[in-house]
Amino acid sequence: MSDLMITGVIDGGLTGGLPKAIQLIAVNDIADLSIYGVGSANNGNGGGEVEFDFPAVSLAAGETIYIASEAQAFTNFFGFAPDYTGQVASINGDDAIEVFENGVAVDVFGDINTDGSGEVWEYTDGWASRDPAVGPNPVFEPTTWTFSGPNALDGVTSNATAPNPFPVPDGGTADPQIAINEYRISSPGDTDDTSNFVELFTAPGTSLDGKTLLVLSGEFNPGQVDFAIDLTGAVADENGFVLIANDQNPELGAGDVGVPGLDFFGSPQTFLLVDNFTGAQGIDLDANDDGTFDVTPWDSIIDGVSAEDGDATPDVNYADTVVPPDGNFPAAGAARDEDGTGDFVALPFGDTDGDTPGSTNDPEVVAERVTIMEIQGAGHVSGLVSDNPLDPTTGGSGPAVITTGIVTAVDSNGFYMQDAVGDGDIATSDAIFVFTGSVPAVTIGDEVDVTGTVSEFYPGGQGTGNLSTTQLGNADVTVLSSGNDLPEAVVLGADGRPLPPENIDDDAFTSFDPETDGIDFWESLEGMLVTAP
């Protein structure tokens, strides 16, 4: 029996269906979590593929972990950060979830071969939950699950205020996780002594009373507490950030911590965020410099990160997370590539333009407005998701875009839209499928504006060899007008666009020839209205 099982899934009711997450629990102690992985079966596509691999860490029996599609909305909703983020959690309320142990499915939620829309286990804008006492099961048993029903979380902004909240161990009262999110230890110039800072990320409104930021020497006197910054009185802002900086730093705001003359000097060091520190600045926690603390005057270490240099003198690091050097020196700073949970990425010397003290490291990307034809391109997959769009196996996920068209057909999980006039290029389809996950609120003849993520959908999975459909997902749809004429259908055959008479493909996908290759011909018409006399 698997020692890891699914205990819940959530598809929130906020914009974009957030938060989206998978809740799991360790049934027994797990020495190495990396033997497990998680996959999603979208719209009944059969699943069977590991999409997320856990790191090589241990997990104690009874410990609950969360994989979310992103960190900030999850944290805002629950009041604590997810343990992991990944695309596997970009689920809709009709998608099944699998847990794999050494590549073999050992637990499942939902029917991997069935689109959950309208099924008893549908959780659109809602959740499903299971008592850990039931144990894992590779065969889905709906009777062992509790379902909120669709739309239970519509408009709900936090689990604490939900009429029917998602079940969380301890009632969802766990202390919010706090992460060291960004820092700078080297100033860009001799005259600048205000740019050094440490940024924390947690749930909005979290009090840091009783917390202390320690800065430990890593080379000149390893283990010495160079700074012990009391964070009592600090409170995370509405976005979850707390800034600890030189008191002259212009980014400081209410709830932040200004420290007179703060300068980290750019040397090897470790930042530790600890609870209930009873020591003092200047004490040596590692008298023999062996990297092991002789004393630990705190209740717990909440988070830590070390910065080491590249010279010949060995550094001593006191955190598991270590930011590598920039040449002979420690990196000037580092920022997580996703707030709270991402890996640290080094910040450059001499340029603070990329620093984001007190704000997100993941600024919202403004979607570019493009035509449907620009999304489709002349190839088997969109050039927005692949560097080689001629190769039908190279699809994936791409950027968010905005586009406009006329609704030409409505399905149970989305709709087709087509540019009103097209671009006159037979190689580029004028139409695209918009995936909504449930019956969309549009009607044939509606002119719509769609913001969504470009991707390629492969029936049965990308490894099956099936051709993909270019689509827009995570769609935000705005109806601009209704009752419009549909785009003119392409007439197939001798009286319109001739079909290639001989070849399916004669170039092994090295060129796109819709006039002579049958497989390219049909790709160039993907999703479009046609007439076959």
Describe the structure.
It is a single chain. By secondary structure, this protein is mostly beta strands. The protein is 3% helix and 32% strand. The strands form 6 sheets. A 6-stranded mixed β-sheet has the order 6-5-2-1-9-10. A 6-stranded mixed β-sheet has the order 16-15-12-11-20-21, with no helix packed on it. The mean pLDDT is 91.
Short account of what is shown:
This protein has helices at residues 72-78, 372-376, 518-523; strands at 4-14, 18-26, 36-41, 52-53, 64-68, 84-85, 96-101, 104-109, 126-130, 145-147, 179-184, 197-201, 211-217, 225-230, 241-246, 257-259, 269-275, 300-307, 322-323, 333-336, 344-347, 368-369, 397-411, 414-418, 431-435, 447-457, 469-481, 490-491, 530-531. 3% of the residues lie in helices and 32% in strands.
List keywords for this structure.
mainly beta, 3% helix, six-stranded mixed β-sheet, 533 residues, 29 strands, 3 helices, 32% strand, globular
